[in-house]
Write a structure and sequence with these properties.
- By secondary structure, the chain is an alpha+beta fold.
- Strands 11-12-8-10-9-14 form a six-stranded mixed beta sheet, covered by helices on one side. A four-stranded antiparallel beta sheet has the order 4-3-7-13. It has a two-stranded antiparallel ribbon with strand order 1-2.
- 26% of the residues lie in helices and 19% in strands.
- The structure holds adenosine-5'-triphosphate and manganese (II) ion (2 copies).
- The site of one manganese (II) ion (MN) has 3 residues, from β8.
- It holds the Pfam family LigD_Prim-Pol.
Length: 317
């Protein structure tokens, strides 16, 4: 299928294994995670991570000299882009076409480690169907003074609103301060509504419904002033070109002494209820996480969409 760049023939150079240089370089001075350690982590989680990451345009946080030095975001292909990655020309708002990157396999993940990528962030659609988002994400950003229990309650509230609209959702501990609630969309019928403007409007309407019910607890606007004592339900992740952290991505966030580097970690709703923080899992937990059942096992079984009824309820056209 020549429409599908993820499955098409891999060029010979892309099959070359990644050579790790400066493997002992420390990327995270608190956890002592090295480039070798990051590559080992990527391999360990690849079976769970790749189905959620492969074929999606990336936004990358690179820390080539470790988090003690400068880190920078990279969205576009450059001279140093690994041969194990693919490129896709994407039209920007201003009409220019720019090369974005995506990966397709475990070598792509290891190549990310090789160039000092600490965080992988994803578009809400796949490179081969760029204009058709296939997930909703609600990024819950609490006022730093709020206890984590409030964040968990907000996640459940989002889940319940989505469930009432016939959408199942899955929680992600971000490895930072908050939780993302993710609802897969498609494949199958309903694709006509699965376009950026509709999906963005749908997510905004869900957030606004929650704010209307609990204006004391939630805000749906970027304004920092309004956020005091509340949780920002960041629905702006559902726009074309916006990103959200990849499941299983490490985080360039302060690690706690004695553990690994924090990761963004999929959990079950039961596990979320028991979690005491958003950064309880780290790179050191990879073997244990891979031994337990996949908390998002049902993610790929969902055949759900923005239904006509749900759109009517929310006033989304
Ligand atoms: P936390 O739980 O601590 O909020 P987070 O990953 O949700 O962690 P946010 O600051 O809420 O962090 O950002 C949400 C998402 O928006 C990120 O995961 C990232 O994909 C995207 N994002 C935020 N800031 C930037 C940035 N400067 N450049 C590119 N993408 C960004
Ligand atoms: Mn957030
Ligand atoms: Mn946010």
């Amino acid at each position: 299928n020549h429409d599908d760049p993820v499955k098409d023939t891999v060029p010979a150079e892309a099959r070359s294994p990644v050579t790790l240089t400066h493997a002992d370089r420390v990327l995270d001075p608190v956890s002592h995670l090295t480039k070798q350690g990051l590559a080992t982590y990527m391999r360990a989680v690849s079976a769970r991570m790749l189905p959620l990451v492969a074929g999606r345009l990336l936004s990358l946080l690179r820390c080539p000299e470790g988090t003690a030095q400068a880190c920078f975001f990279q969205r576009h292909a450059t001279v140093g882009t690994p041969v194990q990655w693919r490129r896709k020309l994407v039209k920007e708002k201003d009409g220019r076409a720019i090369n974005y990157v995506y990966l397709t396999d475990v070598d792509g993940l290891v190549a990310a480690a090789q160039i000092g990528v600490l965080e992988l962030h994803l578009w809400g659609s796949q490179a081969r169907k760029l204009e058709s988002p296939d997930r909703l994400v609600f990024d819950l950003d609490p006022d730093p003074d709020l206890p984590f229990s409030e964040v968990k309650a907000a996640a459940v509230a989002v889940r319940d609103v989505l469930a009432a609209l016939d959408l199942a959702s899955f929680p992600l501990l971000t490895g930072g301060k908050g939780v993302h609630v993710v609802a897969p969309l498609g494949p199958g019928a309903g694709g006509g509504r699965r376009q950026w403007p509709v999906v963005s409007a749908f997510a905004k309407a869900v957030a606004e419904q929650l704010v209307e019910a609990r204006p004391d607890a939630y805000v749906a606007t970027m304004s920092k002033a309004r956020r005091q004592g509340r949780i920002f339900i960041d629905h702006f992740r559902n726009a074309r070109g916006a990103s959200a952290v990849a499941p299983y991505s490490p985080r360039a966030k302060p690690a706690r002494a004695g553990g690994g580097t924090p990761i963004a970690c999929p959990v079950t709703w039961e596990e979320l209820a028991a979690a005491e923080r958003a950064d309880i899992y780290t790179t050191a937990d990879a073997p244990a996480l891979m031994r337990r059942p996949d908390p998002w096992a049902r993610y790929f079984e969902m055949r759900q969409d923005l239904g006509a009824g749900a759109c009517r309820v929310l006033g989304v056209k």
